[in-house]
Every structure is written in C-alpha cells, then in structure tokens.
Amino acid sequence: MTDIDLKLASWKLVEVGRVVLLRSGPFTGKLAAIVEIVDHKRVLVDGPSTEEKKIVPRHVAALSHVTLTPFVIPKLPRSAGTGPVRKLWEKSEIDGKWAKSSWAQKAEKAERRKNLTDFERFKVLRLRKQARFEVQKAHAKIRAAAPKS
Fold first, then answer.
1. Which GO BP terms, alphabetically (predicted)?
2. Number of compact structural domains in the chain
3. Could you tell me if residue 48 is inside a domain?
4. Residues spanned by the domain of 121
5. Looking at the structure, do residues 121 and 83 belong to the same domain, yes or no?
6. Rounded CA gap, 37 and 113, in Å?
7. 27/81 same-domain check
C-alpha cells in the first residue's frame, strides 16, 4: 500500500464557535457566534460584541439568514452563557479581525457611499475623472517612450 496524504478541506463548517454575519431581521449586518446547533436548519447565536451598537442578544437564527465567516472562537463550550462567550470573543479579538477583513471594509465603503450627499457624489465624480486623466497621461508617456517596432 502507498501512503496517501490527506488534507482537510478548508470549508466553513457550521460548528459551535463559528462567527456568523446576520443577513436579515433586526440585527442585519451584525456579527454573532454559534453557541448551539438546534437542528439542521437553525442555530442558537449570541453576539457579545465589545461595541454597544453591535451587540446581538441570544436567539435562534435560521441558517438561511446567516453567512458563515472564516473566523472561529476556539474551545467555545456548547451552550455557553453570554459571559464566557464574551470573554472568548474578546480573547480571540473577533471585532478587530472583522474590521481588518476585506468583507467588512467593502461593507463600510458601500455604507459610506450610500450616505453621500449630492454635492459629495459630484466631488467623487470629479476626483475620479482627474485620476483617470493622470493614468491616461502616464500611459501616453510610456507608449511615446517605447521603441517603435
């Protein structure tokens, strides 16, 4: 027999400790951790964020209404209370990791764009035109300096 090197898939599994992003309901856009798996369609979540406006109270959420993130709180016991979840949340620095993720940065950028005034949208348009002009000018210089073949 030959030795086979098995590699565990890096899928995001529904597991106790997995951090999820809520996509619908009153807590849309907030993070929570899976505390208990109720059945194949529902999980018990708790979001003891360090920021007051991002706290999610413990409740049952449908898996169809959450998105699994790549973050996991290690060694979170099943059905842990809000206190232990909060301690492990802070120890794992979930809020900091989330803020650094490209996912959160894109959401924050979209929210900022959504709240622009008419004049601010006009200023963005002008700045994008200026940047595009500078790029075109640089490309023109490069093409002019390139040897003709």
1. ribosomal large subunit biogenesis; translation
2. 2
3. yes
4. 116-145
5. no
6. 37
7. yes
Residues 6+ apart with CB under 8 A from 72: 15, 17, 18, 19
Structure token digits, residue 43: 């999980």
- Summarised one tens digit per residue, pLDDT across range 133-143 is 999 999 999 99
Considering the domain architecture, whether residues 82 and 137 belong to the same structural domain is answered as: no
DSSP H helical ranges for 18-147:
82-92, 94-100, 102-114, 118-145
* Cβ neighbours of 82 (radius 10 Å): 15
Answer yes or no: are the C-beta atoms of 63 and 43 closer than 8 Å: yes
Has residue 52 been placed in a domain? yes
Spatial separation of the C-alpha atoms in residues 136 and 63, rounded to whole Å: 47
Q: What is the pLDDT of residues 8-52, one digit of tens each?
A: 666 778 999 999 999 998 999 999 999 999 999 999 999 888 788
Find the CATH number of the domain harbouring 42: 2.30.30.30
**CA distances, 68 to each of 14, 19, 23, 142 (Å):** 8, 7, 10, 46
In this structure, the answer to whether residues 90 and 29 fall within a common structural domain is yes
